[in-house]
Amino acid sequence: MDTVSGPQEQFELITKGLQEVLNPQIIQDVLEKEKRPLKIYWGTAPTGKPHCGYFVPMVKLAHFLKAGCEVTVLLADLHAFLDNMKASLEVVQYRAKYYEFVVKAILRSINVPIDKLKFVVGSSYQQSAPYIMDLFKLSNIVSQNSAKKAGADVVKQVANPLLSGLIYPLMQAIDEEHLGVDAQFGGVDQRKIFVLAEENLPSIGHRKRAHLMNPMVPGLGQGGKMSASDPNSKIDIIEEPKIVKKKINSAYCAPGDINNGLIAFLEYVVQPIHELKTGKDGSFELIIERPEKYGGRITYDSLDQLKKDYEENKLAAPDLKTGVADKINELLAPIRADFEKDEEFQSVQKNGYPVEAPKQEKKVKKVKNKGTGYPGKSSSPADATSEAATATATATADLATVEDKLDGVKLV
Ligand code: STL
């Protein structure tokens, strides 16, 4: 991948395909007046397993690197912990490492040199005295209401919101200063936090940063939703080719309507990756192995043509699905190969995402005896199928004891 030089060309590549840029002047000044590489970061909270949607920000990281920027990926482990404890502090360390492996593998798979890419784990600096002092200073000038509103699109919204949801956006604002960057990049869902940072960093003695926002890209579910509860709406970065086929087959894709997750994937992932590989703007390729009886292979070299054909029902949904599933499998193959040859990559996945023990309640004999011992004590770990089963059994047993003590009053 050749790098781009000249401030104008660099600025164009840095902002290519974005939905919005706040304070572009900050970026232009760095490139044109200071004549140095732009320092920019992208933060991600290592919670769930990265899915194919991760290709979207990766395309932008590729643009930034190609434009000669100094790019930092923030693995925001404390943010993952603060967001309704989506991950325990122990498990989140493995997830952060797993995310790092995934980001590197994706970038390598699209031929982006990653020697200039920096990874920083949030907890490595977010517990320092100067960082915490900045958090206190910010908490003195940002109202509870503003902090709550800033996090509304990012922090999981629950019935009884925790204080952590107010701390989360403040820390994200302070990260810009403590990572020493000129700009922050993220999805447009981060907009309110970005504005909070711009409005408040100067009041605690820090520079205002530029903000770059990617559009939100629809997933594979109905209405373009990617939902944690619908496993078919997301394709894992390490996914078996057969499962990719199956998930794409069940993707929402109404005939004649180009507003679906499959075409969005072509637009926001396949096309930009093809452009990066060929170095030609607007270049595109999708090969569809249509069954012979329906006319055989189709090759598209224009996304606009594909969209037009789909709208005019010249391209059928099952054929679009075949083409997209094959393309995803092609994109995932080198990432999967990295995973399979790297034991550490596999081990951080295993530790970060332990397979849940089947939710099978171990029957615990209710002991009527109200003596000193408690039933859980007598269950031998050797006959439990896993640690989790032991924990469930113990918990159930403890409950049984409490119920006994309450003399038959049923808990839960
Ligand atoms: C998510 C999902 C997502 C973005 C983020 C988290 C961003 C987190 C973050 C944390 C600290 C920062 C910057 C970004 O300084 O799409 O769960």
UniProtKB/TrEMBL annotation:
Pfam families: tRNA-synt_1b. It is found in: Cytoplasm. Residues 378-397 have a biased composition (Low complexity). It catalyses: tRNA(Tyr) + L-tyrosine + ATP = L-tyrosyl-tRNA(Tyr) + AMP + diphosphate + H(+). Residues 350-397 are annotated as: Disordered. InterPro entries: aa-tRNA-synth_Ic (IPR002305), Rossmann-like_a/b/a_fold (IPR014729), Tyr-tRNA-ligase (IPR002307), Tyr-tRNA-ligase_arc/euk-type (IPR023617), Tyr-tRNA_synthase (IPR050489). Keywords: Aminoacyl-tRNA synthetase, ATP-binding, Cytoplasm, Ligase, Nucleotide-binding, Protein biosynthesis. The keyword Membrane does not apply. GO terms for biological process: tyrosyl-tRNA aminoacylation. It comes from the Eukaryota. GO terms for molecular function: ATP binding; tyrosine-tRNA ligase activity. SUPFAM superfamilies: Nucleotidylyl transferase. GO terms for cellular component: cytoplasm. It is an enzyme of class 6 (ligase). Its EC number is 6.1.1.1. Belongs to the class-I aminoacyl-tRNA synthetase family. NCBIfam families: PRK08560.1, tyrS. This is Tyrosine--tRNA ligase.
